[in-house]
Write a structure and sequence with these properties.
Number of domains: 2
Number of strands: 14
CATH topology of the largest domain: OB fold (Dihydrolipoamide Acetyltransferase, E2P)
Radius of gyration: 28 Å
Shape: globular
Helix content: 10-25%
Oligomer: single chain
Structural class: alpha+beta
Order of helices and strands: HHEHEEEEEEEEEEEEE
CATH superfamily of the largest domain: Nucleic acid-binding proteins
Amino acid sequence: MTLLSLDLAVTQDWQKSRLFSWRFFSFALTVFFLLSSCSSAPPDTIAIATARGLPPGAEVVVRGFVTVPSGLFASFTGEQGFALEDSTGGIYVSLELAINLQLGQEVRVTGQLAEIAKLRVISSRSESVKQLSRQAVVQPNDITTGAVSAATEGHLVRIHGTLTRSVGDDRPYGYKIFLDDGSGETLVFVPVSTGIDPLALPGLQAGQRLTVVGFSGRFNDTYEVVPRFSEDLAVASP
């Protein structure tokens, strides 16, 4: 092999090595950016109805619109959580510390499936609740008193009925109101922490007609509707 041929071969080998090095560097750089973007991207969310069907302890990420502000049910649940709902269902989010969330604010929540007195919840932390840009006030579903059950748990609902008993004083937790529209009696539990005092409502006695908007919840084996604000209780005109 002549000197010229040797130089040409060395040059070609060097060019091939350089081309391989640039290709490897480019590939490595692409992988780096892909991994970086994956680590910084928000986690994928699942529908609330899907999350509700998972076993306790499962890690979930959901998004929805706030239906119960943080801390409003403290005397009912013993913590500072809130509720949210999407197009598939609703769920309560358990928090140790209350956070400033407006009614209708869209949020993304990361946490674990758990239970409070058999109420299905997502156990989370304030730093795992991300406020998003959209807002939409969720409208309650109209249901019968007899329909308040596991099927409605987590939803914002509206019921109409007649008081079947006198208002029960269950303080320091809340008040008990029993309604029946003919489809079956259900419990309306009014937490003291909402600031609502049913005993102060004029004409609220057995036989009175009442409309209630509230969170369809559960305490152990009893399904109930939990109002949020004083306007969630509307006494029918005589």
